[in-house]
Amino acid sequence: MKTLFKLLVKINNAILPSYSQKDPNKLSTAQKAVLGFRYWALTNSLK
Fold first, then answer.
1. Residue 34: which of 13, 7, 16 has the closest Cα?
2. Could you give the CA distance from residue 35 to residue 42 in angstroms, rounded to a whole number?
3. Torsions phi, psi for 31 (to 5 deg)
4. Whole-angstrom Cα distance, residue 39 to residue 33?
5. How does DSSP classify residue 22?
6. Domain that holds residue 10
7. Number of domains, the chain
8. 5: which residues sit within 8 A by CB, 6+ positions away?
9. Which of 10, 18, 24, 27 could form a disulfide with 31 if both were Cys (CB 3.0 to 4.6 A apart)?
10. Pure H helices in 1-47
């Protein structure tokens, strides 16, 4: 299962945009969803 999440993180880094330099309070709802999904995949790949 861990390898699946590691693969998902690699795909996320290649496809999805990064919002690390932006203020989370100023992001749109869709951008917050992308940020949350990336965080969820990363934390599960590290467990």
1. 16
2. 11
3. -65, -35
4. 10
5. S
6. 2-46
7. 1
8. 41, 44, 45
9. 27
10. 2-15, 29-46
Please write the tens of the pLDDT for every residue from 12-41. Answer: 999 999 888 899 899 999 999 999 999 999
Residue 31's contacts (CB-CB under 8 Å, 6 or more residues apart) are 19, 22
Record the pTM.
0.83
The structure tokens 């990064």 sit at 18
**Tokens of residue 19, six digits:** 């919002």
Vertex 36, ends 28 and 1: CA angle to 5°?
155
Coil, strand or helix: which one is 26? helix
The DSSP output letter for 36 is: H
Both tokens assigned to 37: 């999904």
